[in-house]
Design a protein that fits this description.
With 131 residues, this protein is an alpha+beta fold. It has 4 helices and 3 strands; from the N terminus they run αββααβα. The chain has one domain.
């Protein structure tokens, strides 16, 4: 999982401790699927980073610097440099019953990601509608 994925697991676990993520990895023969959640130790570690970020943000604001301190970027960088295993796999079995997908990201977060994606010129055929 990427640092951003782990950050999202942390944010979701803060709202609902039973939250989890599903990771799809295409393979030459089929698809590998993992169901994961942040561990208690992983949540505690990221929570420490979050508390550090809040202190740094306050210090940054008190310094009068006009640039804002980005807590999310700080957390993602700390997660990236961590040597800990912050999440673990949840065993599951596959069934044929229909399911519902819930995306807990805010509209602004999704639109911001899409805007950055297009602005950096990373657009490819999957974003272009064919008629």
């Amino acid at each position: 999982m990427s640092s951003l994925d782990i950050y999202q697991l942390y944010m979701n676990a803060g709202m609902n401790p039973q939250s989890f993520g599903i990771v799809f990895s295409p393979r030459g023969q089929g698809v590998k699927v993992l169901c994961v959640h942040i561990t208690k130790a992983g949540f505690a570690e990221v929570e420490r980073y979050h508390n550090q970020a809040q202190v740094l943000k306050q210090m940054h604001e008190n310094s009068g610097d006009k640039e804002t301190f980005n807590v999310k970027e700080y957390l993602i960088s700390k997660i990236h440099s961590s040597q800990s295993k912050l999440y673990c796999q949840i065993p599951f079995r596959v069934c044929q019953e229909p399911c519902i997908v819930a995306d807990l990201r805010s509209d602004e977060e999704v639109i911001g990601q899409l805007t950055r994606f297009v602005a950096h010129g990373d657009i490819d055929d999957c974003w272009i509608s064919h008629r």
